[in-house]
Amino acid sequence: MTNQTKKKAFLDSLEASKNFQELTTKDQEELKLIYRDADEDQLALALEEISMDEAEYVALEDENAKLATEQEALTKNLKQALHDTQKKEMDENMAEDKKESAKAAEAALHELD
Amino acid sequence: MKLFEFFQNLDRLVFMGGPESFAQSESAGKGPKETPLEKANREAAQAMKRVENRAKELIGSKNPRKRAWGHQLKKAVDSQASLRKRIVEKKSQNKVLARHVQRQFTNALRRIARMEKSFGGSKVDTERKKGREKLLLLVSKSILKDEYRDANVRLMKYVKNANSQKAKKYQRALGSSELIEGPQENRSSMRSRKPNLARLYDKIDDLYANPGKTTAEIRASARQIRLLTRSAVFREALANDQILKKLEYWVDTSIDPKKGKKYNEARIARRIRRSEEPLFSAEVGSSWELTTYAGLTVRVTKGKDHRYKAEITGIKGFAKESNSALARDLSKKPRRKRASPRRRA
Questions:
Q1: Is any Cβ of chain A less than 8 angstroms from the Cβ of B65?
Q2: Contact flag A71-B87 (C-beta cutoff 8 Å)
């Protein structure tokens, strides 16, 4: 009875663990099968293993999330720099056009003279 | 006959067009799922490429203002390069590590199940319990052994890789003194030439030799061995050794024997900044301490914007005899803490 509930608890945490979920169906079935006749000590040791590996998995995931945020900030900075330059460029182009048209107008005036 | 053929073709048409195309469209819709990190990584690469291209265009412009903006943009990209390099490296390391965690997960679970079964139950309860405890210890020891063996295989792989990369860089075969040593090789000469790498190998060996007594301690040691044999740790050790070697050269060549502490510190810092490699990609705030062969102890810290701070903290032996001004300056103040004792004096 107690062993039965322990086994159930073991299977629950096994199935809930991300390392297990990433396995192929075949490997998942195999792991469940080899623990069918497991005793208390085995279950305790296996549970410990599951939680230790889960902690590592989560730590890696957290780190990846941090890396993603860092990269997003990097992308944002670059996009901002590009945007700012584009704006400056547009102003510059307009100023250039103005200068050119002023020059052209002046040339036209000279021609009239 | 024709009608039969028609049905035969129809059958084939339905078969080919039916489930197969359905399956295809389904898989195309799902695709391999892109993680948030992969997405961020792809977008960052795109943004960098775009800014780079724009900078190139502007730099080629006739308008001097536009050219200046182009250089500004180029600088913006370049300043992100080392950060991005670090992120990309970390990303691939984590991928490898995740695979490793997963393999360990299945292997350990298999081993726990298998080894316990090989233990025939004895009839007396206390004896059985004792036997189990012994067995749990055995499981842990066998995991430790596996982990240590794997660690050495991994380290050898890194060494082989690093050496082939080095040979490629030099475009020739490496001499025996240039080869990076593996964990199997004699460590006494390595300790002075590559202190960080030797320390890493020593630490792993020590964990294996003294893993602790209880099951939990042994498992923790096995785990520690695994964490120490990540490629990132290995590469960091190598990089730090390379940095120490280069720093020693820089310090030796920039010391002016007639000048005092402040002047020489500034000179060392400038010297480092001028030819930054291999410190370029090190993180801001990293610091290294070394004692040169002549006997000068220097602590170097990397600051913002690729600026460095050098602090001469000790002088002895030949360096003391040959740099009188420096020795005088250093003796004025109370003696500071000496450099890491692992470095040769």
A1: yes
A2: yes
CA B322 to CA B165: how far, in whole Å? 40
ipTM for the predicted complex? 0.78
- Specify whether the CB–CB gap between A45 and B119 falls below 8 A: no
- Structural tokens at position B164: 């082939």
Note the pLDDT of residue B99: 81
Contact B66 A89 (CB under 8 A): yes
Low-confidence ranges of chain B (pLDDT < 70): 1-32, 115-132, 333-345
Q: Residue A45: which pLDDT band, with cuts at 50, 70 and 90?
A: confident
Residue B80 contacts residue A74 (beta carbons within 8 Å) = yes
Q: Taking residues A8-15, what's their average pLDDT?
A: 91
CA atoms of B290 and B104, how far apart (whole Å): 38
**B109-130 pLDDT per residue, tens:** 887 887 655 455 444 456 666 6
Helices within chain B (DSSP H only):
2-15, 21-30, 36-59, 64-117, 125-170, 188-193, 195-209, 215-228, 231-254, 261-274, 317-322, 324-332
- Interface size A-B, in CB pairs within 8 Å, comes to 136
Element (H or E) spanning A104, and its range? helix A40-112
Q: What are phi and psi of B192, to 5 degrees?
A: -90, -35
Please state, for a pLDDT cut of 70, what percent of chain B lies above it: 82
- Per-residue tokens: B185: 């090789």
Predicted pLDDT at B29: 44
* pTM, rounded to two decimals: 0.54
Residue type, B58: L
Q: Residue B22 is encoded by which pair of tokens?
A: 């359905």
Going by C-beta distance under 8 Å and a sequence separation of 6 or more, which residues neighbour residue B275?
none
Query: Could you identify the residue written with the tokens 């790498």?
Result: B197
Determine the pLDDT at residue A51: 87
Distances (CA, A) of B64 to A80, B7, B60, B69, B74: 22, 75, 10, 9, 15
C-alpha–C-alpha distance, residues B196 and B190, integer Å: 9
Query: Would you mind telling me the total number of residues written for chain A in this entry?
Result: 113
Is B73's Cβ below 8 Å from some Cβ in A?
A: yes
Backbone φ, ψ for residue B288 (5° rounding): -135, 145
Cβ distance A68 to B117 less than 8 Å, yes or no, reads: no
